[in-house]
Amino acid sequence: xxxxxxxxxxxxxxxxxxxxxxxxxxxxxxxxxxxxxxxxxxxxxxxxxxxxxxxxxxxxxxxxxxxxxxxxxxxxxxxxxxxxxxxxxxxxxxxxxxxxxxxxxxxxxxxxxxxxxxxxxxxxxxxxxxxxxxxxxxxxxxxxxxxxxxxxxxxxxxxxxxxxxxxxxxxxxxxxxxxxxxxxxxxxxxxxxxxxxxxxxxxxxxxxxxxxxxxxxxxxxxxxxxxxxxxxxxxxxxxxxxxxxxxxxxxxxxxxxxxxxxxxxxxxxxxxxxxxxxxxxxxxxxxxxxxxxxxxxxxxxxxxxxxxxxxxxxxxxxxxxxxxxxxxxxxxxxxxxxxxxxxxxxxxxx
Length: 350
Prior knowledge:
Subcellular location: Secreted
Binding site for substrate: 174
Signal peptide: 1-28
CATH class of the largest domain: Mainly Alpha
Number of helices: 14
Enzyme class: oxidoreductase
Active site: 75
Strand content: under 5%
Structural class: mainly alpha
Helix content: 40-55%
């Protein structure tokens, strides 16, 4: 418990230090039609303060949940767009995205945190804010409250009516065993350039990994791009290729969102193939180096890439819905009352 408290204290100190600095990137970012920087200014003006205040309490208890919320947003947006489809539980039509292999290690509490935030927001404003927007705000606050940049988030997403298939989920979430060529090819299809990809990879500056995501680099032979001491320490924690243990993604500052991830790569201490190969590959090596020596630059580029990612294939206007429960489509939600139905009308004109 002491280690959690000290980690949060460090993150809180960083939060206080950055609290007056917001990266205003609104003029540099082109928004998808239907999204706005001021979408809820009239219908739910306290939205972002409600989310941030509650997440401060969550992270005070467990700063590790910041990484869980950030990863949840990534896994939502990369598959079928930022429509909160990853939050949907499976149904008679088949298993949900949560049951696809890449999502089995998403933190269970992250799903509960999002729906708790949804309850708090809807209690204050009515059913006018989507789960997809709450997930996007929560990801931003997870970054900021663990020491990273603060930035504006465009809002106005609607929640999807369907979840992606297992095959679609597998096809759209890059594997930790992917090399840089695979990443560049896969994510170019989503309009990400090399700087975006290296920036978004910096999300691995916080969080945990299961051993099975990287033991291919340890067994049967060690990946030569991995530092020997680093590899030996990992073997001690992951003694077999199928070990069920976990380890931190960033050995220097695992609970603080900073640029140390890139310092790790320069020292051959990247955990995944998809991490370390960013420094090995000449096409992305200079970007890694620039972020390792300039945290301000990394923060700016990360925020730009996150805003771009948060607009992937979004539903807006009359598309989708605003769920009354983030894990259930409204058509399947038997608890919806006529009162909630009346509240729904207040957002249909947007």
